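pasting input
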Amino acid sequence: MTIWEQVGPYLASAWVVLGALAAVFGIVLAVANRFFSVTVDPRQEQIEEALPKANCGACGYGGCAAYAEAIVQGKADANLCMPGGAETAVKIGKIMGLAVAAAAPKVAVVKCQGSCQNTFNRFHYIGQRDCRAAAATQYGQTACPYGCLGFGTCVQACPFDAMVMDPQTGLPRVLEDKCMACGTCAEVCPKNIIEILPRDRYVHVLCRNRDVGKIVRQVCKVGCIACHKCEKVCPVEGGAVHVADNLATVDMKTCISCGKCAQECPVACIGNFRSLRREAKKRTGAAAEAA
Amino acid sequence: MRITTVEVGYVELAIGSILISNFVLMKFLGLCPYLGVTKKTSDSVGMGLAVIFVMTLASAVTAALYRHVLLPSSPDHTNVLALLGIPVPAEGLVLVLKTISYILVIAGLVQFIEMVLRKTVPALYRALGIYLPLITTNCAVLGVALLNTTDWKGSASGLPVHLAAFNGFCAGVGFLLAMILMSGIRERLAEARVPKALRGIPIAFICAGLMALAFMGFTKLFGITV
């Protein structure tokens, strides 16, 4: 049999079937394309390109694509991207034709100094090694019910690898150079120990315990005992540090970061980040100069 | 070729396709999305629903295609082409056109769903990502279409259109069930202490194997053999 004799009987029918199928689906898809088309603003893609694409959620949207969409629809400000910073805000401003001012830089601060040396555990916790799971078990195994549980949920959650667990203290440490203030660690911490605060405020009370001083002394060496000494030495008019509910808090708006309260505190629960950040600035300044 | 009536009820089809011959766990079809999308239960549910929709429609269309276009005419039914006067070979177009026309139908349907999803549920569209076009080449969808029509209990004419559509629906439900079970396990596995060498895909494969073993317990459930 020649090839034509073999194939012949099928030619007409096969062509018709496939042709008809293709035509039908072609029409269906063309019509669907008309009714279900999605018009994408070209600026949206440009903005997505300009964003760092870390999908950290600091802007408050579920990812860089969602934030770009919100900007183009006019629902979001252009300077909400924390990792992008001023650079990205300016780029977005150019694309959208707006004048943009960058938001003040922020950083994560861990407000607990309850290290292995300073406090102890009430019970031995055997369970999921996750702070949220531990917190659900009678407020966690630490003696201080407000304190850090040390399982590193915040470290794992950080999308920029800007947190490390200090093996000596058992507390998380923020690598301030890398921290983009996206707020993921603050959200994830079940004790709300981490706060996102302005970088230019150097003095913070590193404790969240609201029990009376006598009880705090029993559970932690460096817990705030509400002695009011910090209040007394504050040079600011009206006071920039206040004790309320047995806990001292520094007011970010009025504090001038002089560090007097940190020096006066008898339990050393107020931290002064001035030297740390000045050194960091020197390092980046030197690097920028060398570059 | 005479149409042989297939004596099977809806309950038999349902239990057969969902439990006894689960497409993922017993037939081992559609393993790519099974392992790729099951990291989050919400993604798995979305994918499973999309697959149910594709499988039902594909089964219906391919069964109709098979009965009325590919099979040669017989006293019980007529071939559409013969009606239109186009010469059809004596043994029909089955051997020649079956696979390619089924693929064409499935590809068209998946494209249609992709467009609809992109407009109506963009979050799901983004979550499924690459796995949506992968339904096109997914052996499970082609598998259910082929098994309905040509392999059904040795019957050469396969299931009628309504039963084929129902079987496709049940196969999709079985797929959804397997996905939900797997994603439930994997979400908990993420926090468990798995040995370093087995973390990620290896432990997922081991779980899949154990689940398949478990599903073998459904063989001959209620005396149904499928």
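fyi The two ends of chain A are 79 Å apart (CA to CA).
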